[in-house]
Amino acid sequence: MVKKSLLLPLAFLLLFLGGCAEFSGASAGKIIPPSAQVSPLGGKWTVLEELDSNGSEGGAGQPWLGSDVQFAPGVVSFGGHVWDNPAYKIKRVKAEDYLLTKYIPSVGSSGLKSQKVDVITVYASGNYLGEFMKLDDTSMIFFVENKALLLKIVAEEADSTLVAGDTSAQELNQDSREGISGVLLGLRIPAATGYTYQTLWIAADHQQLRPILASEQIFFPRTSGFWELSVQNLPADGMTDNLLTARNVTAKAPDLKRENGEREGGAGTEEQPNAEAERVINYIGNDYIAMEKRTAGINHLQVLPVDKLLSPTEIKVSDLLGDKGFNAYLNAREQAAAALREKGITSVSQDESGENFGLIRKNGRWSLVGRIHYQSGGNLEYKDFDLKIIPPANLIFYDALVLSWYNIKDRVPDATDAFTSPNRDIALVKTKTKLTIYPIGTDKLGETHLAELELPEGATVIMAEWATGSYVDSWEKSFLAYGAQALADGSVRMR
């Protein structure tokens, strides 16, 4: 029950850093861009309370209590870190609706139930730092690292040392970006019935490996915080049937089930009740996932928005790549069809919509592919073809190998995949049964690896989201708060 004696009986969660996407809650009101060079937040604030998920006091062990949050022109500071050139987005929302999107209880006696408030999202270098819900000129709620913090203003201006041109602030910012990297690695693992999915957190500080963490779902960053992608198997006659759902980790998990042949999925369940299919994830990014949908003997590639995984509407090539990309898709498809006709295959399916496409890993990079279906010997077969187009940044944020694929294969001949950090300090090299973590030397893998993990045979990497500098600590704390556990014996197991 919310305590009436509390000034602000709110609660919990939103997270600390992310990748590339917009807030997608039902209460997301009008976006109001702040005036150029003007911060919508200012001054020096202090943390009065840390609120738990019921809007009550957080109890003992509150590291944020008494700490400062400061804003000056071109600078924001909190949690022991300083960021320069922050960016802001303002949403004006109904307080009650906004809190419901985070599964936060009703506000009760605070008077916010029908009030409209400003929610200011703060970014630095394109990364999500947190959200501030302004209650009045002297108080606000700060959502960060799965916490809801009550702030009160203590000074109209930040400390005099915290200015955009301050050398120490710039040095702190620069130092925090170097020598430390972390990656959230998503895995698809074959199981007795379909696949399971896991997330690994691998981080190194100046090439010294931190404890490796793991969770049993896909945990991934977005601009609005961290999200969870869940795969739920549903009863079906004679086939594997599953559903994909994605949610901000601060929101209540939906209860998807089948009763009398129908699914109950709550808001957003737009798919037809009897659309049984096995959905196999090939890639997940900040805004989109690419998968294979297997139903009624047809294996179809799909790209879907993370926010609308249950919608029957698919993303088309033209939606992501424009008209030129769509023409390239049609040309590549016609070449694949011509190659089939040369083999005497004349029954080739048509696809004028450009929906049958996706992503695969090839030589350490993500590649766009299309799929063409045809009849052969009375069976429906398919063939994939390369689009030879670099995936756009709104689909894949970072996909660079700082070492050449040939260099990696020369060192690890049985390598099937590889990932390198933006800081050029660590590399992950995958074989059929192992994932090896190397330091990166001068244009080559280090002589001695940092760790080696045993993988189940057939495990596939479907996500690699990198953090650097001070963001590494924030991502790690958020992953631990989500429930991640340290790997005890250097192996990744099937559930």
UniProtKB/TrEMBL annotation:
Domain of life: Bacteria
Keyword field contains Signal: yes
Name of this chain's protein: Prokaryotic membrane lipoprotein lipid attachment site profile
Keywords noted in UniProt: Signal
Signal sequence, start to end: 1-21
Protein source organism: Desulfitobacterium hafniense (strain DSM 10664 / DCB-2)
Ranges for region Disordered: 253-274
Biased composition (Basic and acidic residues): 254-265
